[in-house]
Write a structure and sequence with these properties.
Length: about 400
């Protein structure tokens, strides 16, 4: 072992470490010199004694990940360049993978919020509420969201094995073939059994959702629609601006959402004009984030009636900050409040009319939507709208 080289390397690393932290956090360095000394000591121990060799850059990257982990926030993460690129592609509506939105539940379990409709995971039978215990045999306990997401993504045509636990059903192993996930966020039609009622499902919110929703509403109106069922069940959310634009289709004036950050509160207001027909919105425990912004805005403003089950309860907003090397930091930077300033984070939104449906029952109904025979929540929505149209 060349101790002289190690000593020079440690000195260089120490300078890099101090420059990095002094540039970013001068005051913190001054008031936490003891802890910084401890950090340098740990670096020294790793360089001298650890069997695994790490470069200075790798050690510094590890320290950056550690800072994010100290937030104890499942939605904040350090994103390596390839992961950030894939997230950007997903926001724009396309990526390669299995089509799942996942979260770390309060019990630290990797949990499915919702599969995207028509995705490989959806077709395989994975449901909201399922717990992913392993990905390609790798245990997910203590795994962060970005690592899990990255393991499930890959080249189209390749396979990934997910071990999934479902309450009262036990574990099951799914071998799923990855596909390029095209996410047409809005779909709809006139309900054949009741041609006065239109049905529109929104599977997620990407940059085109607001425009697509407005166009679909107008298309169905021209076909004779006099009332609308808007289906947000198992909608995992997406872009905040898309949710605001979607809400603007139904609300004539006033707040759509309040975004409360560390230093100020920004209010997004309706601009376009209220629809002139009754609306029922279907929600469930898979309705999260941006879909809750839309559902909460419609409920608080009286623009429609919510039917189904309590929503997921993700009421915080993340921002992506791109770094020079193509990596990025994702931070929870704000929480959103409904027009009546309700904080729904970890609480969800209670529907106006509760109609119970199980995970598998809902998944099957969505696959065949609009299923007026087997979909109890849809049937209740039709019943409500039929009375309003009398």
């Amino acid at each position: 072992m060349n101790l002289r080289k190690i000593g020079i390397g440690l000195a260089t690393l120490f300078v890099m470490f101090c420059v990095f932290f002094t540039a970013a956090f001068g005051f913190i360095v001054a008031t936490n010199f003891e802890n910084i000394g401890k950090a340098v000591n740990i670096i020294s121990l790793i360089k001298i004694h650890s069997l695994k060799e790490l470069s200075a850059a790798e050690l510094l990257e590890g320290s950056m990940k550690g800072m994010i982990e100290a937030l104890d926030d499942p939605y904040s993460a350090y994103l390596e360049p390839e992961v950030f690129k894939e997230i950007t592609e997903r926001i724009h509506g396309t990526y390669a993978g299995v089509g799942l939105l996942i979260t770390i539940a309060e019990d630290d379990l990797l949990t499915v919020v919702s599969p995207f409709k028509g995705s490989p995971a959806h077709k395989a039978g994975i449901l909201s509420g399922d717990i992913i215990t392993a990905i390609d045999g790798r245990n997910t306990s203590d795994m962060d969201l970005e690592t899990a997401s990255n393991l499930m993504r890959g080249k189209p045509g390749t396979k990934v094995t997910l071990t999934v636990y479902r309450k009262n059903k036990g574990e099951k192993v799914y071998e799923i073939t990855r596909e390029v996930i095209e996410i047409p966020s809005v779909d709809g039609e006139i309900i054949s059994e009741n041609p006065d009622v239109g049905y529109i499902s929104v599977s997620m919110f990407n940059e085109n959702t607001g425009k697509e929703l407005a166009e679909k509403v107008e298309e169905l109106r021209l076909k004779g629609m006099k009332a609308l069922i808007l289906d947000l069940r198992n909608n995992p959310g997406g872009a905040l601006q898309a949710a605001v634009e979607a809400a603007d289709v139904f609300i004539d004036s006033g707040p759509i959402v309040h975004i409360k950050s560390k230093y100020n509160t920004e209010v997004y207001k309706a601009k376009k004009g209220k629809t002139d027909f009754p609306v029922v919105v279907l929600v469930n425990e898979g309705s999260a984030s941006a879909s809750e912004i839309l559902a909460g805005a419609i409920q608080d403003t009286g623009a429609g009636i919510l039917v189904g089950k309590k929503t997921f309860g993700k009421g915080v907003v993340q921002s992506l900050f791109k770094l020079e090397d193509g990596s990025a930091v994702k931070l929870t930077t704000a929480k959103y409040l409904t027009p009546d300033k309700r904080d729904i984070h970890k609480k969800g939104i209670n529907p106006d009319v509760v109609v119970e449906m199980g995970h598998e029952e809902t998944a099957q109904a969505l696959l065949n939507a609009p299923d007026t025979e087997k979909d109890a929540q849809l049937k209740k929505a039709l019943e409500i709208l039929s009375k309003k149209l009398q």
